[in-house]
Amino acid sequence: MKFADALKKATTLFDSDSFFERIKDEDPTMIKYLPLLQKINKSGFLTTQSQAGNRTKGISSHDGEPYELLERAFITGFMLEKDAVKFIKNMAVHTDKNAIYVPVCKEIPASLDIPLTIVRRKSDIRIETHMSTSLPKSTEASFRKMVHLNKSEKVVFIFCWDSKWCRSASDKNGLFTEVHSILKM
Predict the structure, then answer these.
(1) Where are the alpha helices (DSSP H) in the chain?
(2) What is the pTM of this model?
């Protein structure tokens, strides 16, 4: 399907009960961000993944030890190349966030990825989630299939992240807020 049609389909998906239930099951903390993510999609960024920049403290069910989960807010997805050029430039000039084009190429070692979620236990830090600055062809194909996007237009994959840990994505200076603001420029 063409990019505009895929965007329209994605934005209507946000209004469905099944999508709401899926997000509630996967990550209930993301529910409050759905209206802003829908606006981002309506503004031309066809999102595939996102994380809100939360901080969670708890006690491990495995060993009873305390832990802290720290997130960087991030968002990935597709954008028309002509819009991505302006978007990446404006994110760099007008915000303190990072936005990059992610080329499709061979896989690179995960040890070179950007950490997005860490778990801290005493002095031990473990990376939970991370993002590569390149996209293997199979992953790109999977993302295109997920959002029903064909290859008939010049569409690129974009990765945005907040370099500050645990800054809520919907705050005044949060990633989702600033991404939406830049898309409207």
Answers:
(1) 3-13, 17-26, 34-42, 81-94, 137-146, 175-183
(2) 0.91
